[in-house]
């Protein structure tokens, strides 16, 4: 079962507060459902989670073109005018996504996200679903 959203608040706040320029942190399931968020608008978090489902699928497809890999997406970073988007695999069927401002320390963000996933990755899981039901 997915952990209660409240259980994630302090962990996501710690990531956000620890990296200057963080705008929003979202934990999502592989099928694009928001599990938890910190910062920003709840509707924006839902849109980010939905978009991430397609992005992780695309990244996985590209990863299969590299023969020495297992074909699984580990991290995606998108730099755009005005900021960065990060998405990292965070456990079975779960991802951690962050929107950050342009002046964010990109290396620090990646490291802090990785640290968070290592510390609590087992809790950042979402059981697979089929037809809207947990399998």
UniProtKB/TrEMBL annotation:
Spans through the membrane: none
Among Pfam families, the record links this protein to: Robl_LC7 (PF03259)
Q: Give start and end of each Roadblock/LAMTOR2 domain.
A: 9-100
Q: What is the official name of this protein in its record?
A: Dynein regulation protein LC7
Which organism does this record belong to?
Streptomyces aurantiacus
Source organism phylogeny = Bacteria, Bacillati, Actinomycetota, Actinomycetes, Kitasatosporales
């Amino acid at each position: 079962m997915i952990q209660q959203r409240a259980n994630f608040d302090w962990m996501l706040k710690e990531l956000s507060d620890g990296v200057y320029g963080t705008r929003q942190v979202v934990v999502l399931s592989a099928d694009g459902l928001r599990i938890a968020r910190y910062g920003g608008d709840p509707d924006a978090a839902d849109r980010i989670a939905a978009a991430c489902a397609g992005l992780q699928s695309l990244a996985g497809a590209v990863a299969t073109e590299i023969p020495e890999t297992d074909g699984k997406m580990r991290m995606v970073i998108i730099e755009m005018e005005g900021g960065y988007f990060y998405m990292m695999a965070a456990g079975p069927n779960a991802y951690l996504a962050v929107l950050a401002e342009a002046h964010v320390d990109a290396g620090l963000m990646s490291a802090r996200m990785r640290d968070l996933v290592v510390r609590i990755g087992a809790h950042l899981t979402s059981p697979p679903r089929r037809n809207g039901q947990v399998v």
